[in-house]
Specification:
By secondary structure, this protein is α/β, with parallel strands linked by helices. Helix content is 38%, strand content 22%. The chain has helices at residues 25-35, 53-56, 64-91, 103-106, 110-120, 145-151, 182-193, 219-240, 262-272, 293-303; strands at 16-20, 43-50, 96-102, 125-133, 136-138, 155-160, 173-178, 200-207, 247-254, 277-281, 308-311. Strands 1, 2, 3, 4, 5, 6, 7, 8, 9, 10 and 11 form an eleven-stranded mixed β-sheet that branches.
Length: 315
């Protein structure tokens, strides 16, 4: 089978991509999803990290042959994950190279190993699978996907374990949440680059109506400020997206007044709209009418059943 068609996606900016892989189903879903997001000629490097058994099993002292056997098994699992992912991409006509990182030799942790690999290879996208378990993102044994967003200097694509992409299509329904900040604007520009004549792009602004004990300003005054800020942010978004191919939609949504927050509101809207990709900036700015997109993005990453593209703020 040949490489996936990229008709209408010539402007996709991801040309050097690192995909972190392990033995999980989440990892395979991430590989399958990513291949349809990338242009045909994109450079792809698969990176698998073999944990240090002394760190992985700190309460079970390993010495001698036991330590050697545990390390060999971890290296074998990492190598198998690389081969499996490479086979998937090769079947689609993708050329890839691979890197196996042995933390027993190099030290450190999975997060820093992946970000170091992405930085050394000058990647513009790092792809990871997110395994959801009791509300925590897990990759191997640590909460990796969320810390990666704070360390990597490139965009991060997080693909939930339970998400199965269409086998032949790139994302067609893209949702971008904005707060009027520089980071949100850059995320929207990135989302626009992913559009084609076959895509729909929905841009939302969330009015936070939830009352919290830490709110010292009357809630109706906050709501009015949020609404005014949202109107301006969405108008700026419409101007930015003028001439963008495909369907364009903007909407102001709101949280419930109790037991709700912005992250849950974003995820609900994405599910109700049947989004197959969400795009958020990694950092935002909070004033009286701005929500902290950085922390919201982390919350969304923990909650989302939909693939999430996290876009860093560029100076």
């Amino acid at each position: 089978m040949g490489a996936p068609s990229q008709a209408g996606n010539a402007a996709i900016p991801f040309n050097r991509v690192v995909i972190g892989v392990d033995a999980s189903l989440a990892s395979l879903h991430a590989v399958n999803y990513a291949q349809h997001l990338l242009p045909a000629g994109a450079g792809i490097r698969l990176v698998s990290v073999a944990q240090n058994p002394r760190v992985l099993l700190p309460i079970t002292p390993l010495v001698g042959d036991e330590l050697s056997a545990a390390r060999a098994e971890l290296l074998r699992d990492a190598g198998d994950a690389l081969n499996q992912a490479k086979d998937v991409l090769s079947q689609q006509g993708r050329a890839v190279d691979t890197e196996l990182v042995d933390l027993s030799k190099q030290g450190g942790d999975v997060v820093h190993a992946l970000t170091k690999a992405a930085s050394a290879w000058h990647a513009d996208l790092l792809v990871v699978g997110a395994r959801q378990h009791h509300g925590l993102l897990r990759w191997v044994e640590g909460t990796v996907s969320e810390p990666l967003a704070h360390l990597a200097g490139c965009a991060i694509l997080v693909v939930p374990a339970q998400y199965e992409a269409s086998p032949l299509a790139a994302p067609r329904r893209i949702l971008c949440a904005i707060d009027g900040s520089k980071g949100a604007t850059q995320a929207l520009r990135q989302a626009a680059r992913l559009t084609s004549n076959q895509t729909d792009l929905r841009t939302i602004y969330v009015v936070d109506r939830a009352v919290r004990l830490t709110d010292f300003v009357p809630i109706h005054m906050l709501e009015e400020a949020f609404v005014d800020d949202g109107k301006l942010a969405l108008e700026n978004a419409r101007q930015l997206l003028a001439g963008t191919p495909g369907g364009i939609d903007t909407a102001m949504i709101s949280t419930e007044t109790v037991n709700d927050d912005i992250a849950h509101a974003i995820v609900r809207d994405a599910q109700q709209w049947h989004a197959d990709l969400m795009v958020l900036g990694m950092h935002g700015r909070r004033g009286i009418a701005r929500w902290l997109l950085g922390s919201v993005a982390s919350r969304v990453a923990h909650l989302t059943p939909v693939p999430l593209l996290l876009v860093p703020v560029k100076d």
